[in-house]
Every structure is written in C-alpha cells, then in structure tokens.
C-alpha cells in the first residue's frame, strides 16, 4: 500500500515536470521576451522589458484570454508584418500569463499548442534594432518629432523673411507716395522683385530646413505605414487616431509644397495680389502641419493601448 501511495504521489509530479521541461529552452519570462524581441519590438518598444510590458496594462496576470497581448497574437492581428507567431509560441505566452506572468526565468507549465501535441518551443532572439536605433518605433518617434521641429523652424523663419521684405517695400511705397488707386502697378511690382532679390540668405535657410524636414518625414512616413494596424469595428483606438492624423498632415504636406512653388513664382514676378493670397494660405498650412504632427505624436505616446 505504501508503494502504491508513493506511486500515486509521483505521477502528478512527473506529468508536471514533463509539461514544464519538454519545451527546449523553457526559461519563463526569458523565453517570452525572446518571442517579443523577434516579433513585436520592431513596432512596440514597450516589449523590451518586463516592467513596461506589465505596467503598461498589456497583460492581466492569470487571465490570458482578457490580456490584450494574447488577444492580438492569437487572432494573428499582431504582428502586422513578418511571420505570425507559431502555435507553440502562442501556447507558451498563454501559459506564462496563466501562471501569473512571473518575471523569473524558472520553467513554467505550458499547455499543448492547438492542433499539435506537446508543449511550446522556444523562440530565437534576433536583433531588435532598426538602422542605428534600438527599434523601428524609436526611429519613427525620433524622425517624427525631429521633422516636426524642422517644419516649425522653417515656418518661423519664413514668417521672419516675409516681414523683412514687407518693411522696406512699404517704406519705399510711403517714400514715393505710391497710391493704390492712381499709382502705376509696374512700380510696385518692380520694388517687390527688387526686395525679393536683395537678400536670399534667409530664404535658402528656409528651404534647407524644409528639405531636411521632408527627408526625415519620408523615413517617418514609410516606417509608420509599415506599422499600420487593422481597425477594430465599432472601436476607435489611439492607432486609428494616429493613422487619420498621418493622412491629414500628409495631405497638408502636398498642398504646402505646391503652394510654396506658386508663392515663390508670384513674388518673383512681383504679382502683389497673388502673392498676398497664396502667402496667407502657405503660412496657415505651414503652421498647421507641425501642429497636427506634434498632436499625433503626443497622442500616440500618452494614450493607453
């Protein structure tokens, strides 16, 4: 009887040991992090550490089915690009969350992967870097905020340049007593062209800031499009807002470039009325672009998942 009792006690222990250690490299959170590094960190830098994963509310320890991470990987909504997680990887993450999402590297009990016997397999841990940045998200954030600053600087410099043109032009107008009703428009046009050609240094600084901002903006836009997430019917997520903001400032960007060329042409020809109309629109859109971009960036950083 004693032997039978010992055997009965030994069976559950053996079964658990087999479940927990059958997966090569079953190292608790270390294995989970390896999966995240390979499949998630390029777009989500919060997957880089235990604290950011847990503190961000992305998982509910002990409840995989209500954890947003598990919901998105088990439905294959995530990752958006690249290979989807295997059934074994999904099973391992489910087992880790069900075990309370421990931060240790101790082996955990892993349920058999759906459609396959046995326990989950360990995932490799390739590099999560993108170019010279720790992740694609980091690159996207840096280029986004930097291009925003460059566009804002270009707008401020452009406004100063226009003011520097208006002051001497109006001084000349008052000096010669030019009148809107009786004066010769050719005189006004000639002075506009003269002021435009007098000092081009600030104008080229403005163009340089715009080109620098556009270059970074292109990289920011391409990485952003590669990380687009699917919309959820009936739910407006922060990713939806960020995506709509992108479409908005991208459209404004195209309009701004066109207006920039048209405004330059009007000033260089001395067309006063066209210059004023195009200039106001150019300035308004120039300020709207960094405002929308900054709002979109802060919204994506500050709002919860």
Task: Write up this protein.
The chain has 305 residues and is mainly α. It folds into two domains: 2-98, no CATH class; 136-302, no CATH class. It has ten helices and no strands. Helix 6 (136-176) runs antiparallel to helix 10 and helix 9 (238-268) packs antiparallel against helix 10.
List the defining traits of the structure above.
305 residues; mainly alpha; 2 domains; 0% strand; disordered N terminus
Q: Which descriptor suits the 3D outline?
A: rod-shaped
Along the chain, the helix and strand elements come as HHHHHHHHHH
Q: Which percent range fits the helix content?
A: 55-70%
Estimated share of beta-strand residues: under 5%
Flag low-confidence runs.
Answer: 1-24, 115-127
Largest sheet: none
Number of helices: 10
Distance between the termini: 57 Å
* Structural class designation: mainly alpha
Number-wise, the strands total 0
Overall mean confidence score, pLDDT = 78
Number of domains: 2
Question: C-alpha Rg, in Å?
Answer: 30 Å
């Amino acid at each position: 009887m004693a032997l039978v009792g010992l055997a009965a006690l030994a069976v559950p222990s053996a079964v658990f040991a087999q479940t927990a250690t059958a997966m090569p490299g079953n190292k608790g959170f270390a294995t989970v992090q390896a999966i995240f590094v390979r499949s998630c960190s390029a777009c989500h830098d919060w997957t880089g550490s235990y604290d950011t994963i847990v503190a961000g509310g992305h998982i509910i320890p002990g409840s995989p089915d209500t954890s947003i991470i598990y919901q998105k990987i088990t439905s294959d909504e995530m990752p958006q690009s690249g290979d989807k997680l295997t059934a074994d990887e999904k099973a391992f993450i489910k087992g880790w969350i069900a075990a309370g999402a421990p931060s240790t590297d101790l082996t955990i009990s892993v349920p058999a992967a759906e459609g396959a016997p046995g326990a989950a397999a360990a995932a490799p841990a390739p590099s999560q870097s993108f170019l010279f940045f720790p992740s694609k998200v980091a690159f996207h954030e840096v280029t986004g905020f930097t291009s925003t600053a460059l566009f804002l600087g270009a707008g401020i410099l452009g406004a100063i340049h226009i003011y520097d043109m208006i002051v001497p032009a109006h001084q000349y107008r008052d000096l010669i007593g030019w009148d809107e009703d009786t004066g010769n428009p050719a005189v006004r046009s000639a002075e506009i062209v003269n002021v435009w050609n007098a000092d081009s240094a600030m104008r080229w600084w403005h163009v340089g800031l715009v080109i620098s901002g556009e270059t970074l903006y292109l990289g920011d836009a391409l990485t952003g499009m590669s990380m687009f997430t699917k919309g959820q019917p009936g739910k407006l997520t922060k990713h939806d807002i960020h995506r709509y903001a992108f479409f908005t400032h991208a459209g404004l960007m195209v309009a701004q470039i066109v207006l920039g060329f048209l405004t330059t042409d009007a000033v260089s020809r001395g067309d006063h009325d066209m210059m004023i109309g195009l200039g106001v629109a150019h300035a308004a859109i120039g300020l709207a672009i960094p405002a929308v971009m900054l709002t979109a960036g802060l919204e994506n950083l500050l709002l919860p998942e």
